[in-house]
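Sample A.
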Amino acid sequence: MFDVQAIRSQFPIFQQTLPKGVPVTFLDSAASAQKPQSVIDAEKRVYETHYANAYRGVYRFGAQIDDELEACREAVRQLINAQSANEIVFTLGTTLGLNTIAFGWGRKHLSAGDEIVLNLMEHHANLVPWQQLARETGALLKFLPLTPQGELDVTQLDQFVTSRTKIVTVTGMSNVLGTVNPVRLLSDKAHAVGAVLVVDGAQSVPHRPTDVQLQGIDFLTFSGHKLYGPTGVGVVYGRGELLAEMEPYVFGGHMIEQVQLESSTWAHVPARFEAGTLPIAQAIALKTAVDFVNEVGFEAMQKHEAELVQYAFSRLADVPGLQVYGPPVDRHGAMLSFTMQGAHPEDLAQLLDRRGVFVRHGHHCTMPLHEWLGVSATVRASFGVYTTLEEIDTLVGALHFAREKLRLSS
């Protein structure tokens, strides 16, 4: 059975109180999740017992590091059901991953008049690289509309995904709306016209099963730090034949085969895309994070998070002047973004902090989405495997406290 208190006990950051005995109510897991002791210990162990550079030496420490990195690569392969561990590339995070795909694959395959299909809910990391690529190649950006509830208007897919489409790119789950997107449907539409599907899995991979083969994903990228792992490490998955024909985006050591004074050739995949020194200890500890989520189980995790979202919707309905954005509760991921009439999101976040409630405020790197919503900023409460129903109650109590401090009428 899912025991949230037993899970919570594995996270040292929750074993503390703030001044005056106020407990930590951390509701910002969508920005970066907290780390279990096992992940902290794994990274520390590397530095204390056998740290060495990766893929550089045959001595004992170097060989152990290489083996542990490859074990992580295999663990990630299994996590997302890639066909080969060679389809797993370590990066610094989702942002670099999306740039690697855009400029490694897109720069080689796009030309003037080709089309890239996006939508208004995308994080800037899955928008700005495509803007730059379009400017460089002469390709065109097309934006699939959203429904009033903040979901993709799939009734218009055939008008937007056409014979000129080369790339369809989408977030697996919106970092503001909590919208879970229909990846398989998008894949089918993209492949029918010879396009590739790129998925920004930063929010979806930590919360729900990802099967790149079953879902027909051509490229996927995500960050370790949102998956209860370390910062500074992420993953790009690409189908083997696509990676093999890609050009590297970052150049230097390790990613080369031969270097002459006037030219160079590239190493085989995945080394081709892993220039320089990898985030070694972080990547090794990422395997521990993958082991952690596998032990908890995505089925149990999803059930717990669905209960949290349903409870949060119910409780937040009691707060006057509060508007929650995104799909209805039965189609909503593990976060809620909202505004309160008469309260600026930054003021609201600061007042919640006084009650030990940590939330995110701002445009969440989605300026076009917020313009579509008609607001400059929102407050976001996002949940993790360690979030409790009692913390939802604490959030609601803190919102009533904020209303009192701001002297908002009921």
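Sample B.
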Amino acid sequence: MTTVYVAPDPADLSHPIDFDGFTLVFHRPSGQTHLLAEPAPQILSALAQGPATPAIILQRLAAAHGLESEDDAEAVIAERMAELAAIGLIERR
């Protein structure tokens, strides 16, 4: 069974702030500020469109940014999504 991820409620995250090549996000429920590197902010944005698997997120990112899929891109996206879930920014279902 493929893992589906869900974005946080928009009210749970502060407006992202770009900071020297990184993105700062405050997660209100945990009270933690996270410093995110690419592609984590882009994944959060793509996931805000609705629940998705890593393959769907890759499709959304490719469409939004005009990218061509690389062989290992889905695995990289899956790893980043697992990391975002581990720190509580997204939910695994």
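B remarks: The two ends are 11 Å apart (CA to CA). The chain has one domain: 5-92.
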